[in-house]
Amino acid sequence: MRSSNPVFSRRGFSRDNGYAGFNAQQQAGGPAAGTNPYATNPYATNPYAQQGTVLGDPGQAPARSGAMTIDDVVSRTAITLGTVVATAALAWFLLPVDPANLTKSYGIGIGAALIAFVFAMIQSFKSKPSPAIILAYAAFEGVFLGVISSTVTTYVGAGVVPQAVLGTMAVFAGVLIAYKMRWIRVNRRFAGFVTAAAIGFVLLMAVNMLFAVFGGGDGLGFRSGPLGIVFGIIGIILGACFLALDFKQVEDGLTYGAPREESWLAAFGLTMTLVWIYLEFLRLIQIFMGED
Q1: Rounded distance, CA 210 to CA 229, Å?
Q2: In 10 A of CB 226, how many CB atoms?
Q3: Whether pLDDT at 114 is above 90
Q4: Confidence band (pLDDT; 50, 70, 90) for 231?
Q5: Is 239 exposed, middle or buried (0-12, 13-18, 19+ CB in 10 A)?
Q6: Quick one: pLDDT at residue 211?
Q7: What is the Rg, in whole angstroms, of the alpha carbon atoms belonging to the chain?
Q8: Cα(19)–Cα(54) distance, rounded to whole angstroms?
Q9: Can you tell me the distance from the alpha carbon of 225 to that of 289, in angstroms, rounded to the nearest whole number?
Q10: CA angle, 199 as apex, 195 and 200 as ends, to 5°?
Q11: Coil, strand, or helix at residue 187?
């Protein structure tokens, strides 16, 4: 199983039809498309391998010892998100924003974000999930979020962060309901389109940042004013699409009897996607409140 997110891509998602499947590309001597990708595991013979399941349906999840369960995914995600929240709170209270020296505050936040990025890249290229690396990513990502949230609150108002959190929770709940009701059909074409759109979005934002660094202001204006609102909404929509992909990966893991350790990858992907959505909401609310 892999978890999809707007920035990093791990193991292959290549199901073209139906509601179940991992990367099913045939290899010499390997399993054919549609077979269980965990067939080499002693507990991987899943009776539901050719059937779709609904995320979180205990009647469809594999019951074998050592296989991932929905409880594993929920508990690992809670631990990872809890780490983000805890370190964000610590950064908020221990690293107060100094209006007279914003460079210091931004420097700490950007430094933490870069370290989190390094840990995320390491995990993305590892063949197996590493809880230590994932939690290290979550800790530094939390520091970054704490600094950014504190800065925005200082200059915009105390209601920005709660609104961004509520917005993120609403998107999560909405996508989960839509996914369980099968209003969203996640297939290979959907995954490819969303991934391509997200890569284009990230590259465009990177170009805008470069123009801002060397030209001052907001660069090309993609993160402020009317254009900022448009791209903020696009960013949230992309995050919602990647949540659907994350839910699909969790469902496939349950369907095919993924090893229990794979629940850490699910937690990793979900955390990254939720952080993405939160930051987009934070920026969008900031623009609406007139602070570019």
Answers
A1: 20
A2: 9
A3: yes
A4: confident
A5: buried
A6: 73
A7: 20
A8: 9
A9: 11
A10: 120
A11: coil
DSSP letters of 146-165?
HHHHHHHHHHT-TTHHHHHH
Q: Specify the 3-state DSSP secondary structure of 67.
A: strand
Instruction: Of 79, 80, 55, give the one whose Cα is nearest residue 68.
Output: 55
Sort 290 into a burial class: Cβ within 10 Å, 0-12 / 13-18 / 19+: exposed
**How far is Cα 285 from Cα 164, in angstroms, rounded to an integer?**
7
CA 170 to chain centre: 15
pTM: 0.77
Instruction: With beta carbons less than 8 A apart as the criterion, state whether 4 and 249 touch.
Output: yes
- Per-residue pLDDT, averaged over 141-165, amounts to 88
Highest mean pLDDT, choosing among 152-156, 187-191, 241-245, 285-289: 241-245
Query: In whole angstroms, how far apart are CA 24 and each of 14, 57, 266?
Result: 6, 24, 19
Q: Is 7:198 a contact under the CB 8 Å cutoff?
A: yes
**CA-based torsion, 285, 6, 251, 186: positive or negative:** positive
The DSSP code for 59 is T
Task: Give every CB contact of residue 267 below 8 A, 6+ residues apart in sequence.
Answer: 73, 76, 77, 79, 80, 81, 134
Residue-wise burial string across 151-175, b where 16 or more C-beta atoms lie within 10 A, e elsewhere:
bbbbebeeebbebbeebbeebbeeb
